Amino acid sequence: MASSRDDHSLRKMMKKVSLKRKNLSSDTRRPKRQKVLKEEHKLDELDWKVVERPSAAGIDEAGGILMLEEVDNVEVYYEETPKGKVARFRQVIEPKQNAPARAENEGHSNNHLEIREEQADSSLDQDASDEEVHDVPELPEWSGMELAPVILQRLHDQGFTSPTAIQKQTLPLSLAGRDVIGISQTGSGKTLAFALPILHHILSASPTKVTKGHRRTLKALIITPTRELALQVSEHINACAPLRTEKQIKLHAPPRVSLATIVGGMSSQKQTRMLERGADIIVATPGRFWELVSDNDELAKQVAGVRFLVLDEADRMIENGHFAELDKIIRLTSRPESMESSPEPANTDDDEERSSRNIMQTFVFSATMNKDLQRNLKRFKSSKPKTTNGTTIDDLLSRLDFRDSDPTVVDLSPKDRLVSTFQESKVECLTTDKDAYLYYFLLRYPGRSLVFMSSIDGIRRLTPILELLQLKIWPLHSQMEQKQRLKNLERFKNATKCVLLATDVAARGLDVPFVDHVIHFQVPRSADVYVHRNGRTARAERPGFGLLLCAPDERKLLRALFKNLNRKDDEVMDLPVERDLLDKLKNRVEVARKIDKIQHGATKENHDKKWLRDAAEALEIELSDEELGNGKANNEKDRQVKALKRQLSDLLSQPLMARGISAKFITSGSRPIVDDLLRGENHDTLLGLKVVAAQDDVATKGKNTKGKRIANPGKPRKMPMAK
């Protein structure tokens, strides 16, 4: 009986214990659901995080996007306002009653973050030591520069086995702490001439530990005149900077050298966040950079104590629209008069700031630094040279606060302002015939051609005409969106037989590989612009060709242009042109013009009608059919366009044969082409002409006609009268 009671009490006790365990497990497995708190935030106040990407800056496969960011735990909803729906954002946060647990979790995450930072720092140190252990590539031409081993490795990887002339002259001076003014022809390696000393200084110092609340200190500020040049400079610097190892990428370790590109046309909010995180090097255009630095006291303080100040293509930045912001940035880097007068700073708390502002190096680089080349030739009168109040290069250099008492000037520009591998030619023709001569040149000498025009309206007029003539063409000017500009520039770089119609936005510093031809659709207004335009070709000792299209009213401007270059206009040879082929091409161009004229008029008329309908709708007015336009007239225009397009299609399908070629028998005629066809030397489009480079064709025709004056193809020829 006792044993049975004991068994009963034991089972009862076990039941209670199991019940307690069940309740305990249920409490631990299913916590009580608690309310989620949400806070209202503006778009810029959200917790944005940078997305890791293989390419940090430059023109890449993402269409020119410099940085991608993402954010988690955000709800988007739309609120009705008098102006319509407006997007609002809610940030999801944890409830207050879980504050102790959250604090514990945050402590755990902070510890984890510290561990990861220590691992990243240790990996950086380990990788740095590994770089020192690895054999430095043998680059005897660079041995005297004493650059960091990782820079030599990156130069070797890109095939830069020897420095260029401007690099040989300026790098020893820059590495020795001197201020340098470098003048060298386009495509001579000026970007690396100022970038390598900056990278060497950063890599020679101990790595900066980037932690929360501590950002990188700005060491170099590089100012360029155009957005495209800024992106290109960033791309070249990143190519010479050390790459992150797989271990560093896995640990999300920051790069050894951080670079930020600040240009217009991009999101200013993203660029502000980039600056808040800090960067070792900033490459910027003057307008956007001053816009951001004027509202950021911390950044302004860093700019005042920057270690390197670089002005790339300095002569362009003194032109209208650039110098106002540039002057403010320069004054920000200048020392106060008290610091200039006392080279030995007093023992105060800001000794460090004084010393940093006293050791700043200044680099000024450009292809031209002659203020005479920048004169507007249309306003220049040779009888009485007037002194202008405009800013010149001398004024710019006088405004710079060089820490070096005697900055070194390295001038390697050729005397005649021409690269030895560059060949130039000209065509004198009527203004109305320029389209046909351009079309002839693009067909006769296919390749990558850069056509410069003096106005955006000219680009908008010529682009549809050349597209109707089935040429691969892209425009580039300042009124285009930045993303589209980068996209067209990238397309031009990747294609082989194509045309880029551009204003002088593309005349400075852009390193487009293998540009075969530069064509001046109008005579440039200054010799400085002419030199820089031609500098887009014949880069890095490659051959290049330049063509000037000169109308009768531009001949005076052409003479002044070459006089300013200390040359004579008759030194430039005329372009050889096949007159019979040119006449056939004029018919194509004329039909394309008619099509474009009708289509442009229809587009403008539709735009006006849309504006009228929107205005009538806003005023609640009904419009009659007569006020909206006649539908019959539109149908008639459509029929005209279709008929002209059929005519143009027929003209484009007809073969283009030079004079003397037999259409029936290739072995007959005054110009047999059998041998050329067998050797593969015949032109694909213009039958009867050989495949030849423009510079070789002009040089050959020039030798054959030496001592003779070539009849200009653009001038009307007098026909002999019958006796």
TrEMBL record:
Residues 437-581 form the Helicase C-terminal domain. It catalyses: ATP + H2O = ADP + phosphate + H(+). PROSITE patterns: DEAD_ATP_HELICASE, HELICASE_ATP_BIND_1, HELICASE_CTER, Q_MOTIF. GO terms for biological process: gene expression; ribosome biogenesis. Its EC number is 3.6.4.13. Keywords: ATP-binding, Helicase, Hydrolase, Nucleotide-binding, Nucleus, Ribosome biogenesis, RNA-binding. Residues 171-387 form the Helicase ATP-binding domain. InterPro entries: DEAD/DEAH_box_helicase_dom, DEAD_box_RNA_helicase, Helicase_ATP-bd, Helicase_C-like, P-loop_NTPase, RNA-helicase_DEAD-box_CS, RNA_helicase_DEAD_Q_motif. Residues 1-38, 334-355, 700-723 are annotated as: Disordered. Residues 140-168 form the DEAD-box RNA helicase Q domain. This is RNA helicase. It comes from Serendipita vermifera MAFF 305830.
